[in-house]
Write a structure and sequence with these properties.
- By secondary structure, this protein is α/β, with parallel strands linked by helices.
- 30% of the residues lie in helices and 24% in strands.
- The chain has helices at 36-52, 67-75, 94-108, 128-136, 192-198, 208-211, 246-263; strands at 2-6, 9-11, 32-34, 55-61, 80-84, 113-117, 140-149, 156-163, 166-173, 176-180, 203-206.
- Residues 22-215 form the Electron transfer flavoprotein alpha/beta-subunit N-terminal domain.
- This is Electron transfer flavoprotein small subunit.
- It holds the Pfam family ETF.
């Protein structure tokens, strides 16, 4: 089974800068890591690889230093990787991003299943996986907890979705796109040996010159959504420590509540 995994490099902390004109995150300005939910998608891919003796190729779109995230993914067991990096495709919304990723997947080769994290830690839209599926004309199952593959299922997988306290089993024909929930499994850890091996694993780089997508369909120019402003919210909350007996604390709380109500 040939497996593709879509990952995103997200900022390690909230200490990031924003472009004053485009209001997009300047990703090159902060240290990046693999989006946490994407680690769960990688783990599902590794389980499928072990069951089918397949190959796992990891894809990401980002600045040149996103290569680190790809090397980290290959240290977890992914066999190959593909980086799409080009100023022309930068700053795109989820629709423009999905176009680029879908085109890169088609150019790279045929895949039986494409996995992604359900949500990213920075944008949390949950849209890219479904949009890639739409661009590729494939079925899509979102926010799954686990994947069951059985050769006797004849080109199908069975996934489990969690809805409140219930679990729903969904059958899906391959090829397909599946997004994996954060925390649905326990991602394996890289070792010194696998980190060293990752340095020599294949990494292909695509620019829009190879993808040949029209300039007005990618990046900011190809994004139908537009961020018109961005700001850091002010934190008006404050903490106040109270001590005393139960009755005294109750009276102090009442006084504070009455005080806050009087400000409205």
């Amino acid at each position: 089974m040939n497996i593709a995994v879509l990952i995103k490099q997200v900022p390690v902390s909230n200490d990031v800068s924003v472009d004053p004109k485009t209001h997009a995150l300047v990703r090159a300005s902060s240290e990046g890591m693999i989006n946490p939910a994407d680690l769960n998608a990688i783990e599902e891919a590794m389980v499928l690889k072990e069951q089918t003796e397949g190959k796992v190729v990891v894809f990401t779109m980002g600045p040149p230093d996103a290569e680190k995230a790809l090397r980290d993914a290959m240290a977890l067991g992914c066999d190959e990787s593909c980086l799409i990096t080009d100023r022309q495709v930068a700053g795109g919304d989820t629709i423009a991003t999905a176009k680029v990723l879908a085109e890169a997947i088609k150019m790279y080769g045929q895949f039986d299943i494409i996995l992604s994290g359900a949500l990213s830690a920075d944008g949390a839209t949950g849209q890219v996986g479904a949009m890639v599926a739409e661009r590729l004309g494939l079925p899509h199952v979102s926010e799954i907890q686990s994947i069951k593959y059985d050769e006797n299922l004849a080109g199908k997988i069975e996934v489990v979705k969690k809805m409140h306290e219930d679990k729903i089993r969904v059958g899906c024909t391959l090829p397909a796109v599946v997004s994996v929930n954060f925390g649905s499994n326990t991602p394996r850890l890289a070792t010194l040996r696998t980190k060293r091996a990752a340095k020599s694993k294949p990494l292909v780089t695509y620019t829009n010159a190879e993808l040949a997508l029209p300039a007005d369909q990618v990046g900011i120019a190809g994004s139908p959504t537009e961020v018109i402003d961005s700001f850091e919210p002010e934190n008006g909350r404050k903490a106040q420590m109270l001590t005393g007996s139960g009755a005294e604390l109750a009276q102090m709380l009442k006084n504070l509540i009455d005080e806050e109500k009087g400000k409205v």
